[in-house]
Amino acid sequence: MPLFGCRVLPACPCREAAFEQAAAERRQQECKDRLARLFANAGLGSRYRHCTLDNFQPRPGASGAYSAARAYGEQIGENIAAGRGLLLFGPLGTGKSHLVAAVVNAAVDRGFAAIMERVPKLLLTLRATYNGGAVTEQQLMRGMTDADLLVLDDAGSEKWTEWTEPTLYTIIDERYTQQKALLITSNLNLAELQQKIGPRAMDRIVDMCAIVETSGPSYRRERAKKRLAKAGAGKWVK
Q1: C-alpha dist (Å) from residue 121 to 56, 85, 131, 183
Q2: I need a labelling partner for 38 at 20 to 30 A (CA). Which of 31, 59, 95, 227 fits?
Q3: pTM of this prediction?
Q4: Using a CB cutoff of 8 Å and minimum separation of 24, what contacts does 136-144 make?
Q5: 116-159, pLDDT tens digit by residue?
Q6: pLDDT tens track for 28-37
Q7: SS3 of 151, please?
């Protein structure tokens, strides 16, 4: 029976789809705005905000990591949607941070909400919230869960405490549970990394991430040697 003689017509499916799409885009923009307030410049800083896969300097021992990062970046939408991750590990100075920063930049260029945080700095930031301030621990943790892509750079370099291990586990477990994409870099081997972050976190990482090892000398030290040689400033000390 029509209400008061009025007939209520069902919404057109195309209009419903457009409304849902607009609502999803609005939620996505709200998420990106919130993350921009919490993590300035996606956490990249001035050194990494211009990193791309095209300006990566090829080097011995990094070809596998470069190929994995390029493949991930070329299918960034599919990888984020599927919650696929990537773990790059190996000696310092082998290009790991550049490669994951390049993936973050590719994600941002495609409109995704992405964050790259160095683990030691992230833990210090979380601890600082205990002293009060404009940002709370809950807001930071929610931001790391809501982001389409999260990069934990330099995992394992943090000082281990009874607080750091469960905190890192919570971040990793939330990404795992929500099937959100996670990229990790570490200068440790896999056994050393597990010792630092704990077996529970490591168990989730190996399930959600492709694992690629890098090797070779430090690119930073090679550049320093060249600067010294050019300046005639003396002998390089290993």
Answers
A1: 24, 21, 16, 17
A2: 95
A3: 0.82
A4: 139/38, 140/38, 141/170, 141/171, 141/174, 143/34, 143/35, 143/38, 143/39, 143/115, 144/115, 144/117, 144/171, 144/174, 144/175
A5: 999 999 999 999 999 987 889 999 999 999 999 999 999 999 98
A6: 677 677 687 7
A7: strand
